[in-house]
Design brief:
By secondary structure, the protein is of the alpha+beta class. The chain has a single domain, classed as Phosphatidylinositol 3-kinase Catalytic Subunit, Chain A, domain 1 (Ubiquitin-like (UB roll)), CATH 3.10.20. The chain is about 35% helix and about 20% strand. Strands 2-1-4-3 form a four-stranded mixed beta sheet. A hairpin with a 6-residue loop joins strand 1 and strand 2. The two termini are about 20 Å apart.
Length: about 130
């Protein structure tokens, strides 16, 4: 009984986890991993970039999370898997100001994964199975 109680407390501390699939634009195939719903979006981008590099995928992307945007192309879950796209931000020219890109970057920073995904999926409820 005590063992079961400890496992329950560990699960509560971990929070709900989701299986996600992140496809890096111009790369072959998605990267899949579990993410805690309390993780920050920046942590998800970081995990994706580390997995991408560990697998030796091409093209080489680098590891600066501020150079990337995470995008949810669909608003409905596919059997519990969430599908996302990871884009490298376009390089700005010296005189080219793109306030829309700056606004998108600020919107995602500091948000928890659950809050970000809820906003991106139009308040779609996340099941906690």
């Amino acid at each position: 009984m005590l063992l079961d109680k400890n496992r329950k407390n560990e699960n509560i501390a971990k929070g709900n986890r989701l299986l996600i699939s992140v496809t890096v634009v111009s790369s072959a195939g998605p990267i899949r991993f579990l993410v805690n719903e309390q993780e920050l979006v920046a942590a998800v981008i970081d995990t994706t970039l580390k997995s991408y590099a560990r697998e030796g995928r091409l093209p080489v992307l680098g590891s600066n999370i501020n150079d990337f945007l995470l995008y949810c192309p669909n608003t409905r879950p596919d059997g519990g898997v969430r599908n996302f796209m990871l884009y490298k931000k376009p390089v700005k020219m010296e005189n080219d100001e793109t306030p829309a890109a700056a606004a998108i970057t600020r919107k995602g920073s500091g948000r928890t994964w659950k809050a970000w995904i809820n906003k991106k999926s139009l308040n779609l409820k996340i099941s906690s199975h």
